[in-house]
Amino acid sequence: MNITGDRTARAALTRLFEPADRVVAAVVGQLGAYAALRLLTGEQAPHALKGVTSEEFTAAVACAAQHYTGDIDPQKDLDDAAALGGGFLIPGDEHWPAGVDDLEVPPLGLWYRGNLTTGIPATDRCVTLTGSRDCTAYGAAIAGDFAHGLAQRGITVISGLGYGVDAISHKSALAGSTPEAMPTIAVVAGGVDRFYPSGNADLGRALLGTGLMISEMPAGTAPTRHRFLQRGRIMAALSGAVCVVEARYRSGALNTAHHAETIARHVAVVPGPVTSANSAGCHRLARDGSAVLVTETNELMELLTS
């Protein structure tokens, strides 16, 4: 591998391991990315590590071996990201979002594509809107109103580029954007070279002009269930508040809300008809005391300032 320092080492690690790997994070934290990469790929003799059992370390080395064929080229990944109009952010960079450092397992780095001119806004200037892919007309209307209103107030709307609430949130944020603020950020589960689902490709291209796509995974990586679940923690960490507009009782959107709760972010839900299955997850969070009810944009703004 063509490794020249911390950035290329972290880029290589994102190619070898899945997001939120606790063992990899522990090794990087103790040794640094370059030494961690050598250790985990067998180029350096193993030794005892604090907080990592020998069984866990062996499993991590085996995981790396599954992907390590000797021809992984992190510099090519970096060049490919630049060719897309993006790059790879790592801790210490000027535009590294400090909010992700609140996570128990922070990302090794963040691949991005789009307009990073003014940087990623601070958490108190970002709200995540998430919810059902098969949202109702009611959910679509609320997501659109919230996203448009937040963008008009200079707040960046974060979502996941999926169908339903995600797509409506991105579109409405773009429609309500102001020259002073980044309107929207899409956090995706695969590489930023692909728009997933493909039906939202035009939307993805549209948001790149003034917004960003962000991923923990390098270009060419396909989204998987695990990656979808883990990208929820990035969405939560970038935001001061997470609002679930509509969600079924076991919706994946609730995963993002749970991540937000663990790192002391505000969690909000929109109440819906008690007969609507699409609001059952929202009502569940409210009943558990995990979230507050919101009915208008100003109430989300209040959460950001509290």
From TrEMBL:
UniProt-listed Pfam families = DNA_processg_A
Q: Which domain of life is it from?
A: Bacteria
Residue limits of the Smf/DprA SLOG domain? Answer: 88-304
Q: Which InterPro entries match?
A: DprA (IPR003488), DrpA_SLOG (IPR057666)
Q: Which family does it belong to?
A: Belongs to the DprA/Smf family.
The record ties this protein, via PANTHER family, to:
PROTEIN SMF
What is the official name of this protein in its record? DNA-protecting protein DprA
